[in-house]
């Protein structure tokens, strides 16, 4: 059959199947990301029925998916909110980076994969999935909880850190050397600062240039601006994803609100394509050897995320149940981890098994994370917390030793 016909057949069947998987995921209360990854594994290289006619289209669609994921994330925050969160949550962000990037770095070095793979794997284990966590908080009715701002602050710090990490990683993967890598980092930092200043001072004018009253014009304007800035950012060695994120930050008010509504279906479509593409380029025959390392890494880093959320919530005076909810909510990894691994795959300069390890790792955390987030709502867990609190209160308080007090006459 003609190539165009094969493309339509493959793409139509794939999207229809993804729709069924998305519906299944909602019925069982899980994120659809692992199902999309599994679909990619099933129809990719080494899968049961490889897709050939539509692979190039899916590759382009996956790039658009990353861009839409990041611009939508940027639309959730204003520049002022980001600056405020950066100041108040900086200690929690530092704890998060140290506790969660270190295991990935150490793991890659222990496996003998080299320092470049260590930088990649450290980023994969560091950053949580904003999309999955936002859905978990919404599904569990915790959006208004006292600990939720703590969780969101940690996620915002991670997103800002990615704006610096991704261009630096891109430069390192391209083998440009330490000097040019540092230059890329400086350009990224300067770009972020300039965009934040422009967003704070002139964001209202940028938003005014895009009419919120005309849905068609708004959709075309925001999407075109996002793709344009993402392309320019990529030319400047500042990740296209970061450029899209900064566009989202620059928009505010009714424009941001209506753009979110208009772009949401497109984001869902191309984000699904992105996760499928990552599965397509991963040979499932490479996954069994890395399942045990991926499981080990997942157990360690889910524990460090739990500790991150617990300490961050305790720092602002949240009670113990809220500390556990914050820590358990931060466990899933997702879109950013896949983006980082995708950059490594595209560069072709790191250990090939890293792709399979990252896929297995994300699958484990994104499936078990939302399940574990429900623990604080279970009766036995609440009872355990009450017993723990009672035991702490009943513990005798030590008194300093010294001479006996004189007895009154």
How would you characterize the overall build of this protein?
Helix content is 77%, strand content 0%. The chain is mainly α and 409 residues long. It is globular. It has a single domain (12-23, 30-49, 60-386), classed as Na+/H+ antiporter like fold (Up-down Bundle). Helix 3 crosses helix 10 (215-235), helix 3 (55-75) packs parallel to helix 11 and helix 9 runs parallel beside helix 11. It starts with a helix and ends in a 15-residue tail after the last helix. The model has no long low-confidence stretch (mean pLDDT 83).
Structural features:
409 residues; mainly alpha; Na+/H+ antiporter like fold; 77% helix; globular; transmembrane helix; Na+/solute_symporter_sf
The CATH architecture is Up-down Bundle
Low-confidence stretches: none
Provide the structure class.
Answer: mainly alpha
Tally of individual helices: 17
The figure for the number of domains is 1
Helix content: over 70%
CATH topology grouping: Na+/H+ antiporter like fold
- H/E topology pattern: HHHHHHHHHHHHHHHHH
Mind describing the biggest β-sheet? Answer: none
Pfam family, one: Na_H_Exchanger
Domain Cation/H+ exchanger transmembrane: 20-373
InterPro entries: Cation/H_exchanger_TM, Na+/solute_symporter_sf
Keywords: Membrane, Transmembrane, Transmembrane helix, Transport
């Amino acid at each position: 059959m003609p190539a165009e016909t094969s493309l339509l057949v493959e793409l139509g069947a794939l999207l229809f199947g993804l729709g069924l998987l998305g519906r299944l995921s909602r019925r069982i209360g899980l994120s659809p990301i692992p199902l999309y990854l599994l679909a990619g594994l099933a129809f990719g290289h080494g899968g049961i029925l490889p897709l050939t006619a539509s692979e190039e289209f899916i590759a382009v669609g996956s790039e658009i998916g990353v861009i839409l994921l990041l611009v939508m994330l940027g639309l959730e925050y204003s520049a002022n909110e980001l600056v405020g969160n950066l100041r108040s949550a900086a200690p929690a962000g530092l704890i998060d980076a140290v506790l969660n990037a270190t295991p990935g770095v150490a793991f890659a070095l222990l496996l003998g994969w080299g320092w470049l793979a260590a930088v990649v794997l450290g980023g994969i284990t560091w950053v949580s999935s904003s999309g999955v966590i936002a859905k978990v908080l919404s599904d569990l009715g915790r959006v208004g909880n006292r600990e939720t701002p703590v969780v969101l602050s940690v996620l915002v710090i991670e997103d800002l850190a990615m704006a610096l990490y991704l261009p630096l990683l891109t430069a390192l993967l391209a083998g440009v050397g330490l000097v040019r890598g540092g230059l890329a980092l400086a350009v990224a930092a300067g770009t972020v600062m300039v965009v934040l200043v422009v967003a704070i001072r002139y964001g209202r004018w940028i938003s005014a240039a895009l009419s919120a009253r005309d849905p068609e014009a708004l959709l075309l304007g925001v999407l075109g601006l996002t793709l344009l800035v993402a392309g320019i950012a990529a030319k400047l060695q500042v990740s296209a994803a970061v450029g899209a994120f900064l566009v989202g930050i620059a928009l505010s008010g009714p424009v941001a609100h209506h753009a979110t509504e208009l772009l949401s279906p497109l984001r869902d479509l191309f984000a699904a394509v992105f996760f499928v593409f990552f599965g397509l380029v991963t040979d499932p025959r490479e996954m069994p050897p890395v399942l045990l390392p991926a499981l080990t890494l997942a157990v360690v880093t889910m524990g460090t995320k739990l500790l991150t959320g617990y300490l961050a919530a305790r720092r602002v005076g949240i009670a113990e149940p809220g500390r556990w909810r914050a820590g358990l909510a931060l466990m899933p990894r997702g879109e950013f981890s896949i983006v980082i691994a995708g950059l490594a795959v595209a560069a072709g300069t790191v250990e090939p098994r890293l792709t399979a390890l990252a896929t297995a790792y994300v699958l484990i955390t994104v499936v078990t994370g939302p399940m574990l987030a429900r623990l604080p709502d279970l009766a036995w867990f609440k009872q355990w917390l009450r017993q723990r609190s009672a035991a702490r209160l009943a513990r005798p308080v030590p008194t300093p030793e010294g001479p006996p007090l004189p007895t009154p006459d």
